[in-house]
Structure formats: structure tokens, C-alpha cells
Amino acid sequence: MVKKRVIAIIPARGGSKRIPNKNCVDFIGKPLITHTINAAINSKVFDEIVVSTDDQLIADISINLGASVPFLRDKFADDFTPVSQACLYALKQAEKYFRKKYDVVVQLMPNCPLRNSQDIINAYQEFKLTLTSFQISCFEYGFMNPWWAIKLKKDKTGEKLFPEFDGKRSQDLESLFCPTGAIWIANTKELKKTGSFYTSNTTYFPLSWMSAIDIDTFEDLTLAKAVYSLKKI
Predict the structure, then answer these.
(1) Mean pLDDT of the chain
(2) Nearest to 26 by CA among 231, 180, 228, 208
(3) What is the rounded distance in angstroms from the CA atom of residue 108 to the CA atom of residue 185?
(4) pTM of the prediction?
């Protein structure tokens, strides 16, 4: 059986707004991106680990950690482009640079620092077993139950989004899951066709909510640091 060639793409642009220079911000004594690069390296899943960035500082940090930054991103570094497009562009650049074709691409967002190497191994094993073309990580909602969601009106009264479930106990409600940017996996040929990991055939791989934390705000950063401390106990 021919071993599949697998590449990790870590999209890490420099122009973050809510947390300036987010990918380099301190997280437990190291730049945030460090934790994703280390998890990728320690998983031993990848033939190549490429950081796609438009920022030289991020590039320097990544290279020092053992990742590849063979080019700086010259497209899709704005606030509006879906990250799938940036990942796909980096994949095409990498295949041209390394003169290789990759069978599988794994997108690892650097703002998910609590996803570890075992999470990556487990997700990739699931991807291989299910023979799917697209797999996105997710986590199960806990006490923040979407079935009870309301929209606040100007007068602070609430409009229930799912009134049919009013009064239902949480244990009687179907579990709901939220996608997270921790580990997205795709067959490269199929990704080139669709341009997105989100398709009608995309499957989902549940992670623990701790591994799944996405950092977008300073509040998220504080939460992630607290959770990191809990995981180390």
C-alpha cells in the first residue's frame, strides 16, 4: 500500500485586529503559534509543515521552531477572505515549491493552542478510517445550550429561537456541536475542486471542548490560559 503524502498548513497572517499580532502574543511563556507547530511536529503525521504568513516575525519564529516558511503569503491576507482559500493557495504554492503533490492537507489554526499532538493523530486516524474527503473538528456544546438561545430586543425582553423546546430538560435534548478551527483535513484533489472544506459530504470529528478552544478575543485568551492550567493539574 502506497503511503499517502500529508502536508500541514498553518495559516498565520500578521494583521489580526481584535488581538494585535495575535499569533505572536504570549501564551504560557511562548508565542501563541509555538503550541500549534509543536503539536504538528510531535504528531509525526506530516511530511511537511508549512506556515503560511505575510509577516516576517511570524516566519522567523516558525522557522526557528522547525516549520517551513518557503514563501511569504502575497494573497488572501486580509480580513475578508475565507481561511480555506488561504490554505488552498498555500497548498498550491507548496506543491510548486517542493515539486511534490500531496494527497492530504491538514489545516491547523494557530489560535487553537490547546489542541495537542494526540488530537491530531486521532483526527487523522479517523479521517483515514472513514474514507471521507473532508473532515472538520468540532466540540459538543455544554452548559451553553443553543436550544435555549434567545435574541435580546431593545427593551431587553427575549425572543426564543427554539420555542418548541421551552421547558425541556437538557438531558432530553439532542446534542449539538460547534465547528472549531483546530483540525481540518481534506483530500487535496477534492479541496482543489470545491475550494472549501465545507461540503454536503463533510464529516465532523469531536474534540474535547478544552482542545477545541479558539482564541479570537482577549477574553478567549484568558479562558485558554485558565484551561491550560487545569489540563496541567
Answers:
(1) 93
(2) 228
(3) 9
(4) 0.92
Number of domains forming the structure of the chain: 2
Strands 203-207 and 134-140: parallel
Co-location of 50 and 162 in the same domain: no
Question: 189: part of which helix (H) or strand (E)?
Answer: helix 188-194
The predicted structure's pLDDT at residue 77: 67
Are residues 90 and 195 both part of a single domain?
Answer: yes
Question: Domain range spanning residue 131?
Answer: 6-139+177-232
What is the rounded CA–CA span in Å between residue 53 and residue 30?
A: 18
- Beta carbons within 10 angstroms of residue 62's beta carbon: 27
- Give the separation between CA 27 and CA 217, rounded to whole angstroms: 13
Instruction: Let me know: does 6 contact 104? Beta carbons within 8 Å.
Output: yes
